[in-house]
Amino acid sequence: MLMASMSALAEKVGVSMPTKDLQRWNQDGANMEAQLIEAGYEVDLQFASNDVQTQLSQVENMIANGAEVLVIAAIEGSSLGEALAMAKENEIPVIAYDRLLMESDAVSYYATFDNYKVGTVQGTYVKDALDLENAAGPFNLEITAGDPGDNNAGYFYQGAIDVLKPYIDAGKLVIKSGQIEFTDVATPTWATETAQTRAENILSSFYADGSNVDVWLCSNDSTALGVENALAANYNGTYPIITGQDCDIANTKNMIAGKQSMSVFKDTRTLAAQVVKMVGQILKGEEVDVNDIETYNNNVITVPSFLCEPVFADVNNYKELLVDSGYYTEDQLQ
Question: Which CATH superfamily is domain 2-107+267-308 in?
Fold first, then answer.
């Protein structure tokens, strides 16, 4: 009875995640739920199966069921307007989680990693791996970017392109497919299968003559996995440098096996801990911890943000970053 009484008094936090189909959202949801429960909150965690209408309904139900704060990782940043308007009407603060909620003045805060820096980490890795400052080249580069419905995807892409563009302009990096604009290289819903199909088309159209792909710049691990699958099936040249993001288990295994060069590590425990801190500050009426009040405009307001720091993992440091820290066990990476 005492536990039921305490539970009834606990402040409720609604957590909306986009899908269970990608490993990282399962981890984000689990980390968030565990840390919020440990902090004494009741948690309503929902996954939306990558369906916008499902997510809209889930968030509306969270509001109806008494959530006092909402944490939302949107499937599509501009599609939750009705739910956000309902949250504002009910004076429920909203934290956009990792993906900025667009076209709404009902977004209170944004918690994410430094998305532009994720791209610059990838671009800098490529620059250093090829020694572009000194090497004559030319090197062949292809690009697979992220979901056009995810505001972060543009930051990832632009961060990397800003590092590599001088070498593209100088002719040291050559994109044989000619596909460089974000709209040409984007991957709806970050789908592995979509990335694989496009990569297979590029390989058969531009590399069947025996040309090498020297670099395949991939914005995240699910798209990198698609490219890696395409290379395994349709490519016999020298294996390229491949970038990624999230350190998914399959991709970390591929790094160990030499099939992926790096992945940007975004420790979801760090982000979850920051969000739990922000939730507590909101509910206690305290000043909320942010470190960026200029960068993230959602086309209606500039949203106060907290940006966590990304780092890269590769075969040389993955044990320290991922295993020694307890993020994965050795067995998971076998």
Answer: Response regulator (3.40.50.2300)
